[in-house]
Write a structure and sequence with these properties.
The chain is of the alpha/beta class and 513 residues long. The protein has three domains: 2-242, 2-enoyl-CoA Hydratase, Chain A, domain 1; 268-429 and 466-495, 2-enoyl-CoA Hydratase, Chain A, domain 1 (Alpha-Beta Complex); 431-464, no CATH class. It is built from 21 helices and 17 strands. The strands form three sheets. Strands 10, 11, 12, 13, 14, 15, 16 and 17 form an eight-stranded mixed beta sheet that branches. It is elongated. The protein starts with a helix and ends in an 18-residue tail after the last helix.
């Protein structure tokens, strides 16, 4: 008698693990895609996955759609490199991975567990969207997920992998998570598909052009990473997690990187051009600065005039924010302000110190920027730095002009340590622009205006556009030899490791979204 019950259990187990059946699994493989269970096996430590709600089925009338165990989503927990994580993965072999009432409840339950335990949550998307047959109960499921995304925000890391379609209201859950990874030519996200766009707007656009990985990585900023395939996607998730704590009450692990914290780096100045208006690659400076040149860039292809990402210094995770003179001369604009502000707020939520490297001529001018809200969006960067209470260390390498000087973690925004290289230029305006205003009459009456302007600009640069006036006022804590940058920043990080800072009581601020 007991044998029959055990047999029934294993029959159900086999059925549940076969998803939508061999034909559907073959169809998934024929598209070059792994199944949901194969993805989980690839992501998690071998043998660590424990499934929850394996035998859940939808409650809709059987005539509306066939019933399958699991109801189109696999949920559970396991470990990645020994660290506890919770995971859900849409199973496209079952009703196209569509979300109905019970699938929504499954995801909500695993999110609740992740929040209570304080462990990262990883979602793997491959879904046809809301299950039309279940009507409002499908939408109800999405609503529950969105609410939990908000509860978990700033409490546990939330990561989304897009390895298939994701349409309609379903795309808003990924957008509410901390990091989105899309697999090239496989992951797609859009609110309305190409057919609707064509019908409503008479625009012909392909799935990839509308919502593919490259589109969201370069244009919309929805995707933080582009993975070449599913294996690369899982590797990126693992690497990303290695820089993060489990939750907002913990700090990141200290890793032995075997990179001398007192390492003197003589190559910094070789990277800077003599002319402050010439381009150079800030990423080269970052790689010389951090442990083992290991810099994990976030949003690499979006708003490239600013660089954000994770690295380690003396084994501790840091967040880096840096202007990139290779693009728009490192000027701040709408997209770069949004990109950096969101990254800073993530670091602050999860106790990750922020190192800021500055070389910016200011906010990007122009009617397009003004009309699209550079004032509104640019203020987000100010807000994020002001709000952040983690250790904040700033090093001005080159230009730091006007409002952009203030926005890039200046002393006034409560940065803890502000350093500058001798090459730093701190001023309201760049020398040429300042001279044009200050000596308008002299230049107008000069027989050789170009030579006069050049001479006056040099005098202005020598007298005003340097770090020493700011150092005299205590706004710059120390002007340092570039080769000492690494040990100087590391010592500051070490002394600030127990920093505590609080502000007035509030429910929350009102960032200018």
């Amino acid at each position: 008698m007991h044998d029959d019950k055990i047999k029934r259990l294993y029959s159900m187990k086999t059925s549940a693990e076969s998803g939508g059946g061999p034909d559907r699994i073959d169809a998934q493989h024929a598209k070059g895609k792994l199944t949901a269970r194969e993805r989980i096996d690839l992501l998690l430590d071998s043998g660590s996955f424990i499934e929850i709600d394996k035998y859940v089925m939808h409650r809709a009338d059987e005539s509306e759609s066939k019933k399958y165990y699991g109801d189109g989503v696999i949920t559970g927990f396991g470990s990645i490199n020994g660290r506890k994580v919770f995971v859900y993965a849409y199973d496209f072999t079952i009703l196209g991975g569509s979300l109905g009432e019970m699938a929504g409840r499954k995801i909500a339950k695993i999110m609740d567990h992740a929040l209570k335990v304080g462990a990262p949550l990883i979602g793997i998307l491959d879904s046809g969207g809301a299950r039309i047959q279940e009507g409002v109960m499908s939408l109800d499921g999405y609503g529950d997920i969105f609410y939990r995304n908000t509860l978990a925000s700033g409490v546990i890391p939330q990561i989304t992998a897009s390895i298939g379609p994701c349409a309609g209201g379903a795309v808003y859950s990924p957008a509410m998570t901390d990091f989105v990874i899309m697999v090239e030519n496989v992951g797609q996200m859009f609110v309305t598909g190409p057919e609707v766009v064509k019908e409503v707007l008479s625009q012909d656009v392909s799935f990839e052009e509308l919502g593919g990985a490259r589109t969201h990585a370069t244009k919309s900023g929805v995707a933080h990473f582009v993975a070449s395939d599913e294996y690369d996607c899982m590797d990126k998730i693992k690497k990303l997690l290695s820089f993060l704590p489990q939750n907002n009450t913990e700090t990141t692990a200290v890793v032995n990187t075997n990179d001398d914290p007192n390492r003197i780096e003589k190559g910094f100045l070789d990277l800077l051009p003599e002319n402050p208006y010439e381009q150079y690659d800030m990423k080269q400076i970052i790689k010389l600065l951090v442990d083992n040149s290991d810099f994990f860039e976030i949003h690499e292809h979006f708003a490239e005039n600013i660089i954000v990402g994770f690295a380690r210094m003396n084994g501790r995770t840091i967040g880096i924010v840096a202007n990139q003179p290779m693009y728009l001369a490192g000027a701040l604009d709408i997209n770069s302000s949004n990109k950096a502000a969101r990254f800073i707020r993530f670091c602050d939520s999860f106790n990750i110190s922020i190192v800021t490297l500055v070389d910016t001529p200011g906010y990007l001018p122009g009617a397009d920027q003004e009309h699209n809200g550079i004032i509104r969006h640019g203020s987000k960067l100010l807000y994020a730095y002001c709000e952040a209470t983690v250790p904040k260390i700033t090093c001005i390498i080159g230009k730091a002009y006007g409002g952009a000087y203030i926005a890039m973690s200046s002393k006034n925004l409560r940065a803890d340590m502000n350093y500058a290289w001798p090459t730093a230029e701190i001023a309201v305006l760049g020398p040429e622009a300042a001279i044009t205003i200050l000596h308008r009459k002299d230049l107008k009456n000069s027989p050789n205006a170009i030579a006069t302007k050049k001479k006056l600009a040099k005098e202005f640069r020598d007298k005003f556009a340097n770090p020493y006036i700011a150092a005299e006022k205590g706004i710059i804590d120390l002007v340092i030899d570039p080769m000492d940058t690494r040990p100087t920043i590391i010592r500051a990080l070490e002394i600030l490791v127990n920093k505590r800072q609080s502000g007035p009581w509030k429910k929350h601020g009102n960032i200018n979204l």
